[in-house]
Each structure stands twice: as structure tokens, then as C-alpha cells.
């Protein structure tokens, strides 16, 4: 912006100087008049049109600066927006490649105890996750509690390269998200089979590698938000997989709002526990809360969110 302002001042001075030498007024400068300015360092600007009131209509430039916006339509320094003249260009170029956003409901929950074995699932995905967390004493205590049902959530078992890629592929590396295992507790023997009794609380274990740090030795805050969001979404996934009946079940759900409070630094090269529960249901909206704790039971963050069930295509 500073360079553009200086350039405009120089251009204005050049035009005034030219007027005085030629004895002409601003009105005498038509759209065919061209003035070249070659003394602005590495910039070479060509005025394609100088009209009344000394407004710049079109400017071509060096690769460093592509366009100067007319003075009557400046970019806001506080809330910048793309220039209006680019809107049609962007829409036309994107319309040829974009397609309607499809949000379809799929069940990729993996749980042999529940009889869930989605096709094309890596053969050792479940056993490796269970073995990993059983090797950590405090995790083993949690998943071996009576009436506990473990499962690998569908966010860690993608069905294709175009779905569930963030945790299931992009971050699923030895230095990223190493293992994920969720579990819930049944109230009695009929809890799972009864469609009118949803699962209201799900816990998820995340084994996190050193590649997820921000500051040295500390888990990145964006990653904390990611595992919080995924853990709350798992509540919908498991209820859909179990065929639970409700205003928000049987349809895909997306995050409509999320508020998080960071309480303590998060660890890397360790396992964290996320407890998520349904706080309330209002029509198509589900209010879900969660807490994130490390292996010592220290609360790292807490989060509240609103989820909305959506149509298959939006």
C-alpha cells in the first residue's frame, strides 16, 4: 500500500507537470493518452487511461504489483476483499471444475466386538490400536473396564482418498497421529440393541507424535482443536452405526460452532484422552461438550460445540 501511495503521488505530479508544459487542463487528457513512468526503481507502470478527476482506471505493472484499485473503490486496510472486477473471473473459472458439495452418510466404524468390519479396512488396524493402548497401563485400565466397547472411529478408517483424509491419511504417520481408539460403556445388556437409547458419552485415545508440536515439546493448539472436533463428531458416527433413532441420527452432521479454552500445555510423544458427551439436542442441532486430559489426568482443554444435521447435498 505504501508503494502504491508513493507511486500515485509521483504520477499525479508528473501529470500536473505535463499539463503546465502543454498548457492543457485535466479534461484534455483523453482515454487514448499514455504516459510512461520509468523512474520508480524496479517498477514500470503504464497508465492506460487518465480521465476526469485524475482517477486511475487501468494500470498494468511489473510482476511485483498487478493492479491499483481506482481511488473511488479502495481496498479496506482492516477488512480486505478481492476487487469486484475479479469476481466474475473467479466464478467463471471455478464453475468449470467445482461440483455440488456432497455430504453422504457412511459407516466406517471398525469394531469386531460389535460385528463392524467395513470393506477395504487395513487388516491390522483394530488389533494394532488395541495392542498399542493395552501396552500403556492407564489406557489399559480404561479399555478393560467391564461393559466397555472399543472401536476404531471412521475418521481413522477412510473409505477412499477423497474422504476422512486429515486424520486417516495426512496426519496418520509415526510423527503424527500414531493410533486412535474410541470406546463407550453400556448401561446394561440391551443398551446397544435398543434404537431409542443412544450412546451419550464416548471417549477417544490419541497417540500423538513429535511432528504435531508448535513450540518445542508442546502440542500445537490447532491439533488440540482438531482432536476435540473429531472426538465430538465420533458421537454421531457410533450412534449412526448402531442405528439409533433421533432427530440428528441417520443423517450427516457438521460442526456449526466450536468454542475451546486452552487450560494447560499439551504433550507430544504421549497419549491424550478426550471425553465427549451430548449436552442437549434441539431439533436438528446437537450441543456437545468435551474435555482433553493427558496421562496424568491433567485437563489440557475443554470445548463446547454445536452440530447440525444436513441434507445429503448442499
From TrEMBL:
Pfam families per record: 4HBT
Positions with biased composition (Polar residues): 88-98
Thioesterase domain residues: 217-299
Location of the region described as Disordered in the Swiss-Prot/TrEMBL record: 79-98
Name of the protein in its database record: Verlamelin biosynthesis protein B
Amino acid at each position: 500500500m505504501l508503494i502504491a501511495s508513493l507511486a500515485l503521488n509521483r504520477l499525479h505530479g508528473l501529470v500536473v507537470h505535463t499539463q503546465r508544459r502543454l498548457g492543457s487542463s485535466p479534461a484534455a487528457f483523453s482515454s487514448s493518452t499514455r504516459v510512461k513512468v520509468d523512474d520508480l526503481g524496479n517498477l514500470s507502470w503504464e497508465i492506460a487511461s487518465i480521465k476526469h478527476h485524475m482517477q486511475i482506471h487501468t494500470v498494468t505493472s511489473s510482476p511485483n504489483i498487478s493492479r491499483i484499485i481506482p481511488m473511488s473503490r479502495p481496498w479496506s486496510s482492516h477488512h480486505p476483499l478481492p476487487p469486484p472486477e475479479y469476481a466474475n473471473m473467479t466464478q467463471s473459472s471455478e464453475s468449470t471444475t467445482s461440483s455440488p458439495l456432497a455430504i453422504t452418510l457412511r459407516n466406517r466404524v471398525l469394531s469386531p466386538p460389535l460385528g463392524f468390519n467395513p470393506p477395504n479396512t487395513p487388516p491390522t488396524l483394530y488389533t494394532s490400536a488395541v495392542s498399542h493402548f493395552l501396552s500403556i497401563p492407564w489406557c489399559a485400565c480404561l479399555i478393560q473396564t467391564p461393559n466397555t466397547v472399543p472401536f476404531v472411529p471412521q475418521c481413522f478408517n477412510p473409505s477412499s482418498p477423497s474422504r476422512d483424509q486429515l486424520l486417516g491419511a495426512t496426519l496418520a504417520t509415526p510423527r503424527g497421529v500414531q493410533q486412535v481408539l474410541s470406546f463407550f460403556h453400556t448401561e446394561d445388556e440391551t443398551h446397544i440393541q435398543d434404537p431409542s437409547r443412544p450412546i451419550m458419552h464416548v471417549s477417544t485415545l490419541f497417540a500423538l507424535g513429535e511432528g504435531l508440536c508448535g513450540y518445542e515439546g508442546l502440542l500445537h493448539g490447532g491439533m488440540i482443536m482438531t482432536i476435540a472436533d473429531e472426538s465430538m463428531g465420533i458421537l454421531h458416527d457410533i450412534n449412526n452405526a448402531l442405528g439409533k433413532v433421533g432427530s440428528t441420527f441417520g443423517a450427516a452432521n457438521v460442526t456449526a460452532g466450536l468454542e475451546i479454552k486452552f487450560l494447560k500445555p499439551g504433550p507430544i510423544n504421549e497419549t491424550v484422552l478426550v471425553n465427549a458427551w451430548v449436552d442437549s439436542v434441539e431439533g436438528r442441532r446437537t450441543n456437545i461438550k468435551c474435555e482433553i486430559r493427558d496421562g496424568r489426568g491433567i485437563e489440557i482443554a475443554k470445548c463446547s460445540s454445536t452440530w447440525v444435521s444436513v441434507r445429503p447435498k448442499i
